[in-house]
Amino acid sequence: MVVGPSGLAKIEEGDEWMFLQSLPVWMIPVNASAIGCIGWWLTQDWRLLAVCAGFTLLLLQLRLNVISRLGDDPYLFINPYWDVAEAWLSLIPFLTALVLAEQPETYLTDFNQTTRFAILWAMTVAVNFKVSDVNHLMFYCWFRSSGLALAKKRGLGSRGHAPYGLPWTIPKLKVMEMRRIGWVFFASLASVGLSPLPAVNCCAAIVAYFLYFTQIFPESQAGQHGSLPLPNNLAYLAAAPQLWQRSARSLYPLTFLKLHVVSLYFAAGLCKLGASLKMGRWWANGANLQSYLFHAMWSRPGNVKSHLGAHRLQVFFVTRPWLCVAASALGLLFELLAPAALFHQVAARTFVVAAFLFH
């Protein structure tokens, strides 16, 4: 066992450790660029290609910053996005999808509305998955041999619960097996627009999701509750008649998907109100948000001197309780007003912007 620069143990396991040591430096930016090229091929839109090029250059620059600061050791348990909050990187493909989706007359004109959404959403998920999958594998290489009680379990949520409460027997994968499953998940999503039956891709992605993400359920970025909406969204799309080429008009899968997403936020707001009444303590008093930020500063510290990272912003909020109170109240208001997104287009767009700021 060797201790890396982060102070965490490197678990030497033959081929698995050799795989981690041989990770190419430019793999992540190249993957992101490849997805962008697929998107450009589908859209024939130079704007998507330009955004993709900018996204790739940003990833390359971030990688160079890491190498100059910490060396070329791939086994670095740092922020999954190299000191940049994942929200800022995910914003790039997200905004691309949002802008192009507003111009259906020039974008994916050969596809119906549901299929257009499926392609946009799947490519956005694929980009963000490929940006961080190397970190998933490094975490799993450590986690499966850590000796922790949680490492004996496989499931979802912070404690490895059985998916949907069903008594499933989930296999414990080796690192190389997990890597292959990750490629299946990525390829299924990235090729939705190329498939004659996109629903088949969604079905394959669902299977790969449960095999992959149940292995890293306690990881702070891809595990716990962060990736839980993915299989539900994939299930709605897999059941869409348009993706089976049986109907070009029915939009009920997208309606169900919107209802599900909105219900997640609304239910969270109701739970906070209920807990406030039951415990006799107002949830939005600022203490909860302070606790979340403090936990984030320790669970993903990154580089405290970075100007790009979130550490400075976290310190700014933690040391100003009144800001935590205001942000908590606004967050609770956002959750309780989420159903408004179902009834008006302006409210829906406002919800999208507010959801990004919320996270």
From TrEMBL:
Spans through the membrane: 23-41, 48-64, 84-101, 181-212, 251-271, 315-334
Protein keywords: Membrane, Transmembrane, Transmembrane helix
Keyword Transmembrane among UniProt keywords: yes
Protein name: HTTM domain-containing protein
Organism: Symbiodinium necroappetens
Source taxonomy: Eukaryota, Sar, Alveolata, Dinophyceae, Suessiales
